[in-house]
């Protein structure tokens, strides 16, 4: 299935709408989704993990009046959300205090329950794409039960496409080579500062006709500003000084060509032939409009050759 409409290869990632690394007010969350729609974004990604279901609920509410056949919606399986007896503050990076908890579950029953719960929280009749989410420590269960269940649902026409979303490329490469999947969500492993997906998963995707949605393209913050901000993060942890230094060198070259680091970071992954599009996490309508404008920015072709000449970008990286 086609994940992104012709001429529009940017979608909205909803993890921030689940209060990732900070609270997002209800109105701001709704405005972010509306702004994404107004910008022509028609791919929306979510997951039970994001705010213990909060992101799914907020995304579904904001999309409720949109024509369902005009956008692609993906969610994920692997974590079950259940109710506990007492409220607690989530300890996995989402600022929510709730009676909800999460537990790992890649079983057939767990996959079916997760999809049913997601449909209810989002308020929709179908998921177009379902990813097996973060099975880093659950490879055997994912292969034995989660993927076969999703393949069965795909064959029945219940879901359109299946795949896996992870922050690593090695296991994704195995899934691409060994399992009949359609798409992967590659988080943070094909970015301007960390293009290591070139070594394994991206060639495998080309060989097996698997589409890639590149996410985490700013590596959680390091490249989201023209210059790395104080306290910036890489993969949701404090960024090492060596990475901050490299980001500043990348920014130097971008500025010499009249553009910015975030604009180059958005453009870079889209040049790879396996990448169908990107999803960008946004907390507000302003962030959506900023990223949409960056995605429309014309990047001088000489920028890429200068980055390679300076040793800041791999020679084998496809560029626009």
From TrEMBL:
Domain named NADP-dependent oxidoreductase: residues: 10-309
Superkingdom of origin organism: Bacteria
InterPro entries per record: AKR (IPR020471), NAD(P)_OxRdtase_dom_sf (IPR036812), NADP_OxRdtase_dom (IPR023210)
CC terms in the record's Gene Ontology section: cytosol
One Gene Ontology MF term: oxidoreductase activity
Xref: PANTHER family: GH17980P-RELATED
Name this protein carries in UniProt: Aldo/keto reductase
Species of the source: Kribbella soli
């Amino acid at each position: 299935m086609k994940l992104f409409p012709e001429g529009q290869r940017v979608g909205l990632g909803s993890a921030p709408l689940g209060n990732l690394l900070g609270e997002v007010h209800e109105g701001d969350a709704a405005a972010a989704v509306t702004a994404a729609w107004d910008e022509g974004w028609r791919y929306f990604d979510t997951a039970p993990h994001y705010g213990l279901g909060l992101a799914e609920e907020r995304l579904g509410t904001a999309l409720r009046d949109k024509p369902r056949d005009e956008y692609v919606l993906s969610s994920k399986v692997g974590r079950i959300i259940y109710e506990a007896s007492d409220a607690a503050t989530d300890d996995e990076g989402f600022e929510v205090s709730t009676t909800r908890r999460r537990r790992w579950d890649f079983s057939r029953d767990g996959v079916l329950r997760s999809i049913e719960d997601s449909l209810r929280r989002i308020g929709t009749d179908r998921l177009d794409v379902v990813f097996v989410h973060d099975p880093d420590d659950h490879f055997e269960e994912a292969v034995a039960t989660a993927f076969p269940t999703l393949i069965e649902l795909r064959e029945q026409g219940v879901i359109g496409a299946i795949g896996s979303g992870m922050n690593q490329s090695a296991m994704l490469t195995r899934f691409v080579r060994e399992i009949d999947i359609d798409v992967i969500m590659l988080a943070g492993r094909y970015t301007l500062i960390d293009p290591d997906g070139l070594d394994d998963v991206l060639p495998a995707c080309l060989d097996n006709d698997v589409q890639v949605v590149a996410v985490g393209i700013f590596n959680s913050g390091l490249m989201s500003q023209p210059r790395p901000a104080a306290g910036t993060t890489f993969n949701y942890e404090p960024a090492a000084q060596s990475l901050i230094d490299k980001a500043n060198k990348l920014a130097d070259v971008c500025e010499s060509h009249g553009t910015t680091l975030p604009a180059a970071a958005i453009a870079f992954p889209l040049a790879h032939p396996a990448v169908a599009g990107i999803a960008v996490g946004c907390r507000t309508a302003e962030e959506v409009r900023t990223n949409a404008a960056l995605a429309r920015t014309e990047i001088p072709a000489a920028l890429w050759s200068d980055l390679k000449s300076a040793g800041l970008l791999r020679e084998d990286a496809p560029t626009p």
